[in-house]
Amino acid sequence: MAPAWSLTGLTWAAIASALLASGFLVIDFLYPRGATGPRLIVAGHESRFAPGSVTHFRDHRFYLVRLPDGEFRAFYDLDPYQASRLSAEPARARCRLVWHGPEDPANRSLLEGFGHPEGLFREPCQLNTFTVLGERIYGPAHADLDQYHVKADGLVEVDLTRVICGVGLEGPRRRCAAQLNR
Question: Which among 148, 100, 159, 160 is positioned nearest to 127, based on CA atoms?
Fold first, then answer.
């Protein structure tokens, strides 16, 4: 039979090891390595983006729009309706927004039908449709597109930590798709 002091010591050592291991698991869960990626994206020099252009940054899940007046906007590439359903239906993650621009003749009837010749964002699963300004014009989506803060001072930088929630049908929202699914 082993002495009582060695069993007590082993018990405390096992408890300490279990607590330490669970602590590491909690930290790993709360701060996953490499899952979030960079939060300030340098898109490029302003001259790279012509007025009226739309560029998809697929790896970072946003569209960068340069409006005809030179203003930049960055939209999360998942519409609010699909984002709210992601936890229940993971397949919806494939229903990312698609840009339908005037440069493609196949888009002509779509753009004319909605009265937006400058182009539209459209989600292919539910057909939610948004203007180049991110405003909802068709479909079951309950809000305009979520945006990220853009700084354009020579270089265009998109800050993925500063989210501007799209205005919902009931008014401003507290939480938005870009915050929930990043």
Answer: 100
Residues with Cβ within 8 Å of 43's Cβ and at least 6 positions away in sequence, in order, are 49, 55, 57, 64, 155, 156, 157, 158
Among residues 86, 59, 84, 57, the alpha carbon closest in space to that of 73 is found at 57
Tokens linked to 77: 């590439």
Beta-carbon contacts of 103 under 8 Å, excluding residues fewer than 6 positions away, are none
Provide the terminal-to-terminal Cα distance of the chain, rounded to the nearest Å.
56
In 47-154, where do the E strands start and end? Answer: 54-57, 62-66, 72-76, 98-100, 120-122, 129-131, 136-138, 147-153
How far, in Å, CA of 178 to CA of 79, rounded? 9
Residues of the chain with pLDDT under 70: 1-7, 21, 23-38, 82-94, 169-182
Query: Whole-angstrom Cα distance, residue 63 to residue 101?
Result: 13
Neighbour tally for 130: CB within 10 Å: 25
How far is residue 81's CA from residue 63's CA, in Å, rounded to a whole number? 17
pTM of the model: 0.72
